[in-house]
Amino acid sequence: DGGITQSPKYLFRKEGQNVTLSCEQNLNHDAMYWYRQDPGQGLRLIYYSQIVNDFQKGDIAEGYSVSREKKESFPLTVTSAQKNPTAFYLCASTDRVGTEAFFGQGTRLTVV
Amino acid sequence: RKEVEQDPGPFNVPEGATVAFNCTYSNSASQSFFWYRQDCRKEPKLLMSVYSSGNEDGRFTAQLNRASQYISLLIRDSKLSDSATYLCVVNTPGFQKLVFGTGTRLLVSP
User: Fold this and answer.
1) Within an 8 Å CB–CB cutoff, is residue A35 touching chain B?
2) Average predicted confidence (pLDDT) for chain B
3) Which of A41, A56, A97 lies closest to B102 in CB terms?
4) Does position A11 have pLDDT exceeding 90, yes or no?
5) Which of A64, A81, B29, B30 could anchor a disulfide with B93, C-beta 3.0 to 4.6 Å?
6) Is B60 an interface residue toward A (CB < 8 Å)?
7) How big, in percent rounded to 5, are the helix, strand and coil portions of chain A?
8) How far apart are CA B18 and CA B74, in angstroms?
9) Does B95 have pLDDT greater than 60?
10) For residue A7, what is the enclosing H or E element?
C-alpha cells in the first residue's frame, strides 16, 4: 500500500541532544513538508522541499535542519538550538499539481 | 495578516444541528483549497477538496468565494462523531507550500 511513514512514534530527547525524525513516502510525490503542532494549536511549517536536493525554510525553521537526498525521504533533525522542541511533528507529501496532502502518523517528541 | 485564518471556536452544537465554518486567505492567487479533519492526537485527514463551483459530500458542503477570499464548510445533521478540529488548507501559487489555518474545534453533544 502507498503511504507516508514516520518514525519513531514517540521520541524522548535529553537537553542539548540532536535527534532525527524519519519520514519516508512511497507515493512518488515530489513535494514533502514538515510541520510542528503544539497542544491546542494549528500546524506550523518548518521546512518544505519541492525536489530532491532542494528545500526551503518555512515559518519556524530556526533550530531545525533537513535533507532531501532521495525523493522518498525527508528527515528532520531537531538540533540543540531549538529551545522548546517538545511538540507533535507531522510530515506530509503532495504531488506537484496541488492535490491533497498525505500525512504520516506523526512523531511526539518530548524533552526530558 | 495571517495567510489563512479561522475562528478557533470551539463550536458547541447539539446533535442534528447545522454548523458552518469560514476560513479566509490572504493571497488572491491561491489555487487549491481543502478542508481537513483532525482528531485529538492524530494526523489530519482530508475531508474534502473545495472547488470553485462548490461541492457536496453527504452531509458536508464546501464552497469557495474568490471575490471575498474565503472558503466555507457546512455540516448538516451533526453527529457525535463529527466532533473534531477542522483545518482549512490553502495551496499557494506554484504549489510551493501548503498553509494551514489554526483549525476550528467542533464539539457535538447529545
Assistant:
1) yes
2) 91
3) A41
4) yes
5) B29
6) no
7) 0, 50, 50
8) 7
9) no
10) strand A4-7
